[in-house]
Design a protein that fits this description.
The structure is a single chain. This protein has 169 residues and is α+β, with helices and mostly antiparallel strands. It has two domains: 69 residues; 81 residues, no CATH class. Helices cover 54% and strands 15% of the residues. The chain has six helices and five strands. The protein has a five-stranded mixed β-sheet with strand order 2-4-5-1-3, sandwiched between helices. Strand 4 and strand 5 form a beta hairpin. Helix 1 packs antiparallel against helix 5.
């Protein structure tokens, strides 16, 4: 058998392994960014609503300069989320729908509900993970190209074997 090339035996497979590693690093987050809206609740902020007692204790000695809303002024999605957060043991719920009062809620607001005031604030924005548009396809391409590089030594050996057989006949 002919002397094997260092390039085809060691260098190209090593570069192939590096390409596979980089490709995985690009394809996984790139693929997640594509499907995240179907499997998670990104872009749906989480609000926290304090009970009337906690709100009264928080603002007992001060009169805060916060936006004030009546429950009826909230959008349908905000009303649903407000009620859900009131019944939640932790006092939090995600808004799924129109959120026109988001800027006021981010800074903290007081909402009057059934005669009581409740402190409401956004506790998590839940942003979507953003990646460049070509990150996923380039990652997959790097994985495939790296796999070809990893497979180079056996292919190279097979070609050498075929060449040696051809030269004997």
């Amino acid at each position: 058998m002919a002397e094997e090339s260092i390039l085809f035996t060691y260098v190209i497979p090593f570069v192939g392994v590096l390409l596979v590693a980089v490709g995985i690093g690009g394809a996984v987050p790139g693929g997640y960014a594509i499907i995240q809206e179907d499997i998670t609740t990104c872009d749906q902020p989480t609000i926290a609503v304090e009970g009337a007692e906690e709100t009264q204790q928080r603002f007992n000695t001060t009169s805060p300069d916060l936006a004030r809303f009546d429950y009826a002024e909230l959008s349908d999605a905000e009303q649903r989320t407000f009620e859900e957060a009131l019944t939640d043991p932790v006092g939090e719920a995600r808004i799924n729908g129109s959120f026109p009062n988001a800027p006021a809620f981010r800074n903290g607001s007081l909402v009057s509900y059934e005669g009581d005031e409740h402190y409401v604030t956004v506790v998590s924005e839940n942003p979507c993970y953003v990646t460049p548009a070509l990150q996923f396809p380039l990652g997959v391409f790097a994985i495939v190209f790296g796999a070809v590089g990893i497979a180079t030594p056996p292919i190279y050996r097979k070609l050498i074997e075929l060449e040696e057989r051809a030269s004997f006949t």
